[in-house]
């Protein structure tokens, strides 16, 4: 499911001091639905260089640049939001990434279990939904901040809104932010009772809470 915090967790790992000290270089690439080997190699090289590569380079010189970048290095590469289910495409990319030193690592975030089984050499870590209590705390943090006194009349309405978020942290954060400066009960009622909540959705659609915001 979207909004559970896969990218956020990957960012915490990526920015962790122990990770930074352990690896020779770190690279982050947002993949989304365009899993093209040439584009990804170019993105990896550009991410490390900190600037775009000039011109439209062919695959071979891009592979050479990637080889020069990663060869013999213990690198940490994050491929965020991967949707590709084509094993052949993954093997092609994997082949050019194998030049790193022992301990070089690739971390992939994905919504699809099939992607995890194709790219994974370790058991995938599956995020679960937040508990109602944690979801409420997250919502409250966004809606009221840390210092403000809470209007007790808004609490039961807020808890009903949080229940509709289904334990998805992004939904709780988004709606909490939406209500940050709204203190009338009628404004909170409108969010709770909005018809968007009842619209049909599939597992890949935008959460009602996010559409509502």
From TrEMBL:
<keyword id="KW-0433">Leucine-rich repeat</keyword>
<dbReference type="InterPro" id="IPR002182">
    <property type="entry name" value="NB-ARC"/>
</dbReference>
<dbReference type="Pfam" id="PF00931">
    <property type="entry name" value="NB-ARC"/>
</dbReference>
<protein>
    <recommendedName>
        <fullName>NB-ARC domain-containing protein</fullName>
    </recommendedName>
</protein>
<dbReference type="InterPro" id="IPR027417">
    <property type="entry name" value="P-loop_NTPase"/>
</dbReference>
<keyword id="KW-0611">Plant defense</keyword>
<feature type="domain" description="NB-ARC">
    <location>
        <begin position="1"/>
        <end position="146"/>
    </location>
</feature>
<dbReference type="GO" id="GO:0043531">
    <property type="term" value="F:ADP binding"/>
</dbReference>
<dbReference type="GO" id="GO:0006952">
    <property type="term" value="P:defense response"/>
</dbReference>
<dbReference type="InterPro" id="IPR042197">
    <property type="entry name" value="Apaf_helical"/>
</dbReference>
């Amino acid at each position: 499911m979207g909004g559970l915090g896969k990218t956020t967790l990957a960012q915490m790992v990526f920015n962790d001091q122990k990770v930074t000290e352990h690896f020779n270089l770190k690279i982050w690439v947002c993949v989304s639905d365009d899993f093209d080997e040439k584009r990804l190699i170019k993105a990896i090289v550009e991410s490390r260089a900190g600037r775009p590569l000039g011109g439209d380079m062919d695959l071979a010189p891009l592979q050479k640049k990637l080889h020069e970048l990663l060869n013999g290095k213990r690198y940490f590469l994050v491929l965020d939001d991967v949707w590709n289910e084509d094993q052949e495409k993954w093997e092609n990319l994997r082949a050019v990434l194998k030049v790193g030193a022992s301990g070089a690592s690739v971390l992939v975030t994905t919504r699809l279990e099939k992607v995890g089984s194709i790219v994974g050499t370790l058991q995938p870590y599956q995020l679960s939904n937040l508990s109602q209590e944690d979801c409420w705390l997250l919502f409250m943090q966004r809606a009221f901040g840390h210092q403000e006194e809470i209007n007790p009349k808004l609490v039961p309405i807020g808890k009903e809104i949080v229940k509709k978020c289904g334990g998805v942290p992004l939904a709780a954060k988004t709606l909490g932010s939406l209500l940050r400066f709204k203190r009338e009960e009628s404004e909170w009622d409108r969010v709770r009772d909005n018809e968007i909540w009842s619209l049909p959705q599939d597992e890949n659609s935008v959460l009602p809470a996010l559409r509502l915001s």
